[in-house]
Amino acid sequence: MNERILQTLEFNKVIEQLNNQAETTIGKELASNLKPSADSAKVKEMQAETDEASQILRLNMTIPLGGIADIRASIKRSVIGGVLSAEECLDVANTLYGARQVKNFLEKMEEHLPILKDLAGRIVTLRELETQINSCIDDRGNMMDSASVKLRSIRSSIRTFESNVRDKLDSYTKSQSKMLSDAIITIRNDRYVLPVKQEYRGAVGGIVHDQSASGATLFMEPKAVVDLNNQLQEARVKEKQEIDRILRALSADIADAEAILSENVSVLAHIDFIVARAKLGRQMNAAMPMINDDGIINVKQARHPLISEDEVISNDVALGKDYTSIVITGPNTGGKTVALKMIGLFTLMAQSGLQIPAADGCEMAVFENVFADIGDEQSIEQSLSTFSSHMMNIVSILHQVNHKSLVLFDELGAGTDPQEGAALAMAILDDVVSRDARVVATTHYPELKAYGYNREHVVNASVEFDVETLEPTYRLLIGVPGRSNAFDIAKRLGLEQSVIDQAKNKVGVNSESVENMIASLDESRRQAEDDYDRAHNVLQESEKLRDDLIKAWQQFENKREDLYKKAEDKADKALQKARDEAETIVDEIRQVKTNAQLKEHEWIEARKSLEEAQPDLTDKSADKSKQINEATQELNPGDEIKLLSANQRGTVLEKSGENDYLIQVGIMKVKVKRNEIQLVKNKSSVKEKPLTTVKGSGYHVKTELDLRGERYEDALARLEKYIDDALLAGYPKVFIIHGKGTGALRKGVKEFAKNHPRIGADRPGSAGEGGSGVTVLELK
């Protein structure tokens, strides 16, 4: 895409914001050079990168990028034999430390971040080189005494010489103070000197290094310290030579690691660039768009990224599915150009790996080219009028446009005779639409208001205008052409009704009919929006009631299970008591067996005691005998029965075997044995009445299924089982939580829904339902 389009759509301003989010100079360089890509695979990869960094930001965590410097020039100089300064070597060490911190941070993350973790894996930690540099150079870039044994020795001698010189000069300041203009020791030309009055020059003797501006004071090095200063200078020369030797050795080590260091810098720049894109998305409250190659744009609650949050108005825009072109009509002050630029800018941002300020679930297409004819194109240099300049640009666009293009026309056909301009605008639109390009055009010509009704794949749109406040609302209305508000505005401003009526009489019949049609459409739209709001409120209340019922039912089930458990505990205690009594009886029998002569009445008494050691529970012997008798009773289709295992009532459908029956319990058909069901009423005694489905705890499933973290095949298997359970539970819709991630699981859920005969529709979750991380399935 050429630079002119990027400037026209103000993409450079987005890049400035992105540049401010980068933490390192190498990251800022990548941000400044960012350009949209026409490669769909590359765009999807960049969006996935940004989304991974966004996941880290959502966890309130930050990748540590501090201390990383652009060391590429230093590396290059070291390779060609240059000696790096201490500060440059320290930058290398700090960058190695920063690289190690970034690598450790990303590798310890438990979240699924394949791209960022792969980048972290490419970082090589050179701990030995980092330690070697830090052992020689301190945090301020100064060479430390510990850098070498020789340097420590030299610096020790320097301190000794400095002390000797100062001691000697101190004796002058005390004994010869009258010859000095000030009793201090100072330095000139790296040598210690005294400020001597001009008249005592000969008395002090020595070397003059400088004098004051007035000439009254001479800065002299007394003869007594000349040799000491010479020794000090020699030691300092040796110090510099040793420091140069150490830096030369460190530079050679850096040159040996050139390949690793260069790769580390490249990876760190890329990571900083990715994080900057995520930070910009968070600043704009943006979402990751789904990318397609089908020319489809579908965004909800879209906001122009360069308009402040206090002023921007969100809009819904759809293009490329039901229609390929949008013609926005209406007055010049209605904000049409803002909507036009927003669509173009969203496209450039999405194809640059940036998230767009819209609701979750947004979708953007990848275009080979974005063409725009926007603004005042008058060329003074070429002596061209506005219309001529526009035509030159449009002709250039028509020579390049194809089915992979997005074309933006602002005030198409303006600058010439209105009738000719409108006719030319329609002809240009017809030509571009015929090439299957995606087109968004704005115009104030009334002739184009009916254009969308007469052309296939074209839809009208307008920007809403509030006649009460005489200001545009900047709401984009798809499907409704812009109406002329001149008469309404004039009336609000106080123009006499008679004048307005006279003006209306001069308007053509066709124009008046079109305006009436638009007014009717606008009223219908408002009514539809009101109906939608009411329906939405009813839906929310219904869902809340459903959730309350499910919660109450669950509480009932939990209470019933608790009662069952208490009954089982009571039964266990009774059984344990019976076992204890039985043990006592067995012990007595064993003792009796030791008698040589066992009497019959003793056996009878023992047996009676054993039979009496039964659990003290409710007597169900009558019910059991009744069930045994009923188990042999023949059942007929239509008989009302009770399924004993589920404690639910149902109806006999048919006898499927010698001792098998097919029954229906609620919406479920089950094949059971005769002893598993109990007759409630014969068909002859059952009156026709509506069936009531009673769901037991066995049928209760949640209205949502969480598949995050599952393997693809396991997730689809769970999904299939869950849908069967949800259908049995009679849910109208369910929520499948799959997360965002790479989108593979979301696509799998969508494909499953498309092929399932009992799933009527699927859609991404709304902002309150989990966004694109959730798919809502409507069940038949």
Secondary structure layout plus pairing:
Blueprint: H1 3-8, H2 11-21, H3 25-32, H4 40-58, H5 72-79, H6 86-108, H7 114-121, H8 127-136, H9 149-175, E1 186-188, E2 191-197, H10 201-204, E3 207-211, E4 217-221, H11 223-256, H12 258-283, E5 290-292, E6 297-302, E7 315-319, E8 325-329, H13 336-350, E9 363-365, E10 369-373, H14 386-398, E11 405-409, H15 418-434, E12 438-443, H16 451-454, E13 458-466, E14 471-478, H17 486-492, H18 497-506, H19 509-593, H20 600-612, H21 621-631, E15 640-643, E16 648-655, E17 660-665, E18 668-673, E19 677-681, E20 704-706, H22 712-729, E21 733-737, H23 744-755, E22 759-764, E23 774-779
Parallel strand pairs: 5-9, 8-12, 8-13, 10-11, 11-12, 20-21
Antiparallel strand pairs: 1-2, 2-4, 3-4, 6-7, 13-14, 15-16, 15-19, 16-17, 17-18, 21-23, 22-23
Give a brief rundown of this model:
With 780 residues, this protein is α/β, with parallel strands linked by helices. It has 23 helices and 23 strands.
What does this structure look like?
The protein is of the alpha/beta class. It has 6 domains: 3-126 and 257-283, MutS, DNA mismatch repair protein, Chain A, domain 3; 160-232, no CATH class; 290-485, Rossmann fold, CATH 3.40.50.300; 529-612; 621-685, SH3 type barrels, CATH 2.30.30.30; 701-779, Ribosomal Protein S8, Chain: A, domain 1 (2-Layer Sandwich). The protein has 23 helices and 23 strands. The strands form 6 sheets. Strands 10-11-12-8-13-14 form a 6-stranded mixed β-sheet, with helices on both faces. The radius of gyration is 44 Å and the shape is flat. The chain starts with a helix and ends with a strand. The model is unreliable at 377-383, 616-622 and 686-698 (pLDDT under 50).
